């Protein structure tokens, strides 16, 4: 659990100005990682660079693809900045998988609503692709995604692919000459679309203020708080409950989460 394994970067896609999708394979391991690095949507890994440091990053790849792992990383600090300077052929340490995962098995037969803002689509990407791989097992699938500007939209090709199996709605905070789509904040767009309905299983990830507003509006709509889920990976550091940086009362985000239902957060007395 505590020892890092070495992974080799085999792909690097620049999603936005400061955000990159990395595809890695594990050194000295057969190409099929099933049983070696098994994970579920919502879990995370700790990525590290010797002499630089380490950081928790959500696993963005799809569990039913066993040939590689993917991580979407934004260069926002010293460690992520150094990682985002790496290219194909470079190596990085990783340990995991850690944390609680999204309750995909509980979603069978239900309508699903995914709400994401910015790089918050990265943790949901794994879950959405897992759903799309078993599309007939679920009801309606709707995805609402927002970015500050058109240039900060991530996973453009996949958003187009998801449209073939569900409904995808995209909005940006600020208008530009290159954009003919919807303009406005994500929570307001969800209001316009009237998507917060009782019985839907909802998954929310994005900036803390967006998550806070969304949870409040789900509550106002009378939705079951046990059917509304979010992930709080921004609060994590060590990943194994030792540094206490992610403590929420008697709970730790890295070990008891990062995935929580709205009902659980309310029971903890947590205000985002």
Notable characteristics:
7-stranded mixed sheet; about 270 residues; Rossmann fold; globular; alpha/beta; Elongation Factor Tu (Ef-tu), domain 3; 6-stranded antiparallel sheet; 7 helices; 2 domains
Mind explaining what this structure looks like?
The protein contains 7 helices and 15 strands. It has 272 residues and is of the alpha/beta class. The mean pLDDT is 90. The radius of gyration is 18 Å and the shape is globular. The protein folds into 2 domains: 5-98, Elongation Factor Tu (Ef-tu), domain 3, CATH 2.40.30.10; 104-268, Nucleotide-binding domain of ferredoxin-NADP reductase (FNR) module (Rossmann fold).
Series of H and E elements: EEEEEHEEHEHEEHEHEEEHEH
Q: Gyration radius, to the nearest Å? A: 18 Å
The mean pLDDT is: 90
- Class from helix and strand fractions: alpha/beta
Within the largest sheet, what's the order of strands? Answer: 10-9-8-7-11-12-15
- State the distance separating the first and last CA atoms: 30 Å
Biggest beta sheet summary: 7 strands, mixed
The CATH homologous superfamily of the largest domain corresponds to: Nucleotide-binding domain of ferredoxin-NADP reductase (FNR) module
For the record, the CATH architecture of the largest domain stands as 3-Layer(aba) Sandwich
Q: How are the SSEs placed, and which strands pair?
A:
Elements: E1 5-14, E2 19-26, E3 44-49, E4 53-58, E5 69-74, H1 78-83, E6 91-98, E7 112-117, H2 121-133, E8 141-147, H3 156-163, E9 167-172, E10 182-183, H4 186-193, E11 201-205, H5 208-220, E12 228-231, E13 247-248, E14 251-252, H6 253-256, E15 259-261, H7 262-268
């Amino acid at each position: 659990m505590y020892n890092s394994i070495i992974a080799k970067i085999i792909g690097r896609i620049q999603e936005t100005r400061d955000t990159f999708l990395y595809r890695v394979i594990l050194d000295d391991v057969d190409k099929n990682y099933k049983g070696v690095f098994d994970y579920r949507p919502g879990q995370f890994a700790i990525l590290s660079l010797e002499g630089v440091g380490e950081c928790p990053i959500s696993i963005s790849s799809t569990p039913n693809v066993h040939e590689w792992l993917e991580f979407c990383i934004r260069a926002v600090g010293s460690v992520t900045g150094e990682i985002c300077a790496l290219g194909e052929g470079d190596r990085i340490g990783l340990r995991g998988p850690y944390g609680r995962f999204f309750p995909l098995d509980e979603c069978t037969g239900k309508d699903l609503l995914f709400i994401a803002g910015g790089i918050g689509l990265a943790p949901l990407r794994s879950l959405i692709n897992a759903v799309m791989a078993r599309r007939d097992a679920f009801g309606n699938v709707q995805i609402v995604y927002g970015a500050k500007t058109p240039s900060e939209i991530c996973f453009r090709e996949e958003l187009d692919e998801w449209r073939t199996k569900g409904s995808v709605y995209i909005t940006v905070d600020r208008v530009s000459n290159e954009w003919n789509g919807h303009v406005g904040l994500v929570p307001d767009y969800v209001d316009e679309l009237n998507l917060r309905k009782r019985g839907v299983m909802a998954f929310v990830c994005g900036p803390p203020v967006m998550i806070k507003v969304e949870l409040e509006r789900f509550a106002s709509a009378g939705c079951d708080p046990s059917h509304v889920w979010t992930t709080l990976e921004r609060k994590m550091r060590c990943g194994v409950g030792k540094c206490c940086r992610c403590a929420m009362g008697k709970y730790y985000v890295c070990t008891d989460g990062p995935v929580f239902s709205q009902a659980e957060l309310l029971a903890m007395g947590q205000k985002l």
